[in-house]
What does this fold into?
Amino acid sequence: MKPWQGRFKLNTSSLVEEFTASIGFDRRLHGYDIKGSIAHAKMLAKISIITEKEAAKIEEGLAEIFREIEADKFIFDPADEDIHMAIERALIDKIGPLGGKLHTARSRNDQVALDTRMYLKDEIKATMSLIIELQKVLMGLAEENIKVILPGLTHLQHAQPILFAHHLMAYFFMLERDFDRLKDCYYRTDSMPLGSGALAGTVFPIDRFFVAEELGFSKVSENSMDSVSDRDFIAEFLSAASLIMLHLSRLSEELVIWSSLEFDFIEIGDDFTTGSSIMPQKKNPDVAEIVRGKCGRVFGDLMAILTTLKSLPLAYNRDLQEDKEALFDGVDTVQTCLKVYAAMLGSVKVKADKMKTSAEKGFLTATDMADYLAEKGIAFRDAHKVVGELVAYAIEKSVDLKDLELKELKSFSPLFDKDVMSLILVETSVERRKSFGGTASSAVAKEIDIAKKMLKEEEIWLT
It folds into this structure.
């Protein structure tokens, strides 16, 4: 029998039961639903709605249901609609009418809001831990390759020589922003909604602050209507997850390019690549490609929740049932990608010689020559023109800048002297860029020191 059956003359159609049921996916909230129910029972006893003995019996029954679900012995019935009704039905079966008292002073509306917030709090922290692990791998790879030079690109064209470590640390700091976004999201998720009832609160003298303390919430939601209809925290998490995936997708693109025969900068381990069913020679960066593909999936999860929320009047509407599949998928996808990424990067072999050889092509030190002239007193725009003409000359001769003789350089500007020859080496170009955040090895070493302090602060926050 449905809990609302008194109002209806006909039983719910089996088609409607199947269509409206969420038990197939929200069962993963069972632990949070039971934990929340135990706290609610303790609160009901505290305000004398039920006795301490009754609260203990309810807790015992709920604990038994939890063990059954964990042992895969619990029978889920689609007629229960959702995990909340499934657990309530099982509790009444076990301890009789007392089980029905548990729903005093609460609604499924504030119950599901509670369960989802408790679930997401844990998953936010789990995601943050995985970000830390990936950051450690990136930092370790940077430290191992602190002197390796590769061509820095803009528009996918050779631009200036940089350190490979500098490139890797760019992703470290992207992930740092992701960590901070999740920290902010956690703060807004950490608000206890139970006690809001269906939308208007309750006539019972409940102690919401007691429940919040029992469940580890730092604060209690202030408005009952907002409490049951708010899913901003889900949208915020999926937004943060989308940016994590965006960053992983950008790195995936680079790994795919770098591991190609045309670049040949890295080799991804055999255990994180696949072959072809027809071409024996192939070694494909499938893990990076799949992560790149799953980026769009998480974007879709974000768009799904935003679209669901965009036209909902206050307070609760059944449309909100659609929040969980998008949330669960976003959580599972981003966490899986972070796990596999940390492992895959650990398998990467860096081809330092290939990177440096490539960096020595394409006139990457042309800016250094323009800077040289600017240091001699020429306006940078004029220096830029001189070096541009010099590059065009070198292209016509099919040589690189370092292959030109000093007299050839002087024909473009008398300010060139023999000291310029050392400045146009890629090693010198890199090491002269000592500005804070620059690519010189000393600057990158400072980046890594800053990163280590950030990691310590992140780990402290999670404890």
Notes: The longest helix spans residues 108-144. The chain is about 60% helix and 5% strand. The radius of gyration is 30 Å. The mean pLDDT is 95.
